[in-house]
Amino acid sequence: MLEINQLQKSFGDTQVLTSIDLSVKPGELVFVIGPSGSGKSTMLRCCNRLEEPTSGSILLDGEHVTACHGAALDRMRLKIGMVFQGFHLYPHKSVLANVMLAQVKALKRSKEEARARAMEMLEHVGLAHKADAMPSELSGGQQQRVAIARALALDPKVMLFDEPTSALDPELVGSVLKVMKQLRDEGMTMVVVSHEMDFAREAADRVVFMDGGVVVEAGTPEEIFGSPKSERLRAFLSRLHPSAS
Amino acid sequence: MRFLDTFFDGAVMAKYLPDLLSAIVTTLWLSAIIVVGGLALGLALACLRTLGRWYLTLPIVAFADIGRALPPLVVILIFYFGLPGLGLNLSGPMVLILVLGGVLAAFAEEIFWAGLTAVPKGQWEAGRATGLSFAQTLFEIALPQAIRMGIPPLVNRALAITKMTALGSVIGVKEILAVSSSAQSFSGSATPLTMAALAYLAIFLPVVILSRLLERRYAWAV
């Protein structure tokens, strides 16, 4: 479904991604962990070209994400949903209008169709009753769920989550994870960059550990958390749970 | 009594009221063209500047900086008395519209641009990530937020610039100040000037009040 081949990314002289290979199968939830600065977010942002890869290729369903430009890239991005750490809802638009905008402007759906789909998606994330609210009236967790609905309404083939719960108060994290879990159970293909290790254990099909711009280790949650092979992963995990080690 | 005779002479008022009314109309339509044209040009320039091409940015920045630095009166005099030397004869109102509209555009461009740069990068990313084009993201997401941030300074600028229509009095435009000032010299009474002040208040006070309502209407918590 999503294939990342020999992805490299440098900012000036700083190489952030050395060479990333990652293949995500349909319906799979790939969970990416690693210390900050390891290039997790950069890799994710290369997948929809918010960052321009220095070299390498990314394919979605056999189509080159890395080769398209202009309007073709805009169409490609419709198939790749993205959820940001900072939500980035449009503050001047109502919740409903946030979820409708790209449907109407990019997907060229009629207003009625877009509204119906938006309400369906808001219902899905449990926020249909907030359709007429402004984003500033919502809690962080609610805003993030609206952002998820906004991405889902475009019927993407894959959803990218860039630290979706890192900006949330602890008591609001659960509501967002619940929606993500539900998405996974419905068969959505997902790549999640996050520090929610409990969620990874529970919901991930595969866990990828990145450090220093490379994939150091990948495997099932049991393998990664239960029997880490590399020293770097062991060190990373022990820093997360000092008491457990 | 002397105060009233000097500033509120009834006979003088009655005599010059028709002239002053037509001058008010002149000031009004001049102001309307200047504000609409200046804001539209400033908005267009700020939008062009977002494209980030040096051959667009450079002239836009030069225009904005020069337009904000020069005293409008200097430019008005150059246009009105200088350009005929090149065979270019512009009427007084035309000079006023070009110069004041241009100066407002220079300020407005900077205000819109400041607003655009204040829109968080994440807003652009959210728009582009959902498949919106650069132009759609600009017009649907960035610009509405930039305009709302810009309303208070834009209203101030628009008011300041429309008051400068009084500069038309030096190049023979029959706007409020020109008409009342000549009425003052003919009548020997300060009353026409009082009428001018009242006329300006009648025009601009409602605008100021309206702008306060506008600011409240468009304020939203982030």
From TrEMBL, chain A:
It is found in: Cell membrane. It is a peripheral membrane protein. Its main location: membrane. This is Amino acid ABC transporter ATP-binding protein. Pfam families: ABC_tran. It comes from Alloyangia mangrovi. Residues 97-124 form a coiled coil. Belongs to the ABC transporter superfamily. The keyword Nucleotide-binding applies. Residues 2-237 form the ABC transporter domain. Keywords: Amino-acid transport, ATP-binding, Cell membrane, Coiled coil, Membrane, Nucleotide-binding, Transport. GO terms for cellular component: plasma membrane. One of its GO terms (molecular function) is ABC-type amino acid transporter activity.
Automatic annotation (TrEMBL), chain B:
GO terms for cellular component: ATP-binding cassette (ABC) transporter complex. It holds the Pfam family BPD_transp_1. It is found in: Cell inner membrane; Cell membrane. Its main location: membrane. GO terms for molecular function: transmembrane transporter activity. Residues 24-214 form the ABC transmembrane type-1 domain. This is ABC transporter permease subunit.
